[in-house]
Amino acid sequence: MANLLTFLRLLLALPVGLALANDELLPASALALLLLIAIASDILDGKVARSFGTASARGQIFDHATDFIFVTAGLAGAASANLVPEILPILISLAFSQYVLDSHFLYRQKSLRMSSLGRWNGVFYFGPLLLIAGARLLEKNQWAAETALTILSLLAWALVISTVISILDRAMAPFNIRQHAHEKAREEAHDKTKQNPVR
């Protein structure tokens, strides 16, 4: 059941991306509905998996990969319509690739190792998509639509910055791990020296 909810979101990625690229493809209300269905599936799939006892590392990877595909498709469509910076979906692709690779090769984990900043970025990547849909729904109210687009621009650039910070933070992680291990080894050696003083 949980995987079906995730698969539903995956199926919506292409039509949502195309609709964000071309505002004539779907009515604003239909785009908003598809986005709400996708977000609802994202909220529910994890809860369903836990309640049925079917949560697994593979399910987590499928869920996160689907989130990545959905928001990247949507933001790529928005970028092609000059609604968000073109660099944003590229950075998200780099961040997700780094996220998968260091989870498996650096931390040797079957499940994905998410950082706190990465988790919040993942939530807010849906924001620009919702703001675009909102601006289209409010197109008859020029002030409201322009306000939504202004917020969209600010949020998109904030996400560019936070994604770069997340990438740099993960890139520095191996050095921090080695430094922590070195300091721990030094402390243990110091403790042994104190316990067994040279006489």
Task: Please write out the topology.
Layout: H1 2-21, H2 28-51, H3 57-80, H4 87-106, H5 116-124, H6 126-137, H7 142-195
Helix pairs in contact: 1-2, 1-3, 2-3, 2-6, 3-4, 3-6, 4-7, 5-7, 6-7
Characterise the protein shown here.
The structure is a single chain. By secondary structure, the protein is mainly α. 82% of the residues lie in helices and 0% in strands. The protein has one domain (2-195): Four Helix Bundle (Hemerythrin (Met), subunit A), CATH 1.20.120. The protein has seven helices and no strands. The radius of gyration is 21 Å and the shape is globular.
Brief synopsis:
With 199 residues, this protein is mainly α.
Which geometry do the CA atoms define?
globular
- CATH class designation: Mainly Alpha
Helical content (DSSP H or I, runs of 4+): over 70%
Corresponding CATH architecture: Up-down Bundle
Let me know the number of strands.
Answer: 0
Biggest beta-sheet profile: none
Number of discrete domains: 1
Structural class: mainly alpha
In N-to-C order, the SSE pattern is HHHHHHH
Mean pLDDT: 85
Cα end-to-end separation: 68 Å
Number of helices: 7
| CATH fold topology | Four Helix Bundle (Hemerythrin (Met), subunit A)
Gyration radius, rounded = 21 Å
Instruction: Pick out the low-confidence regions.
Output: none
Residue fraction in strands: under 5%
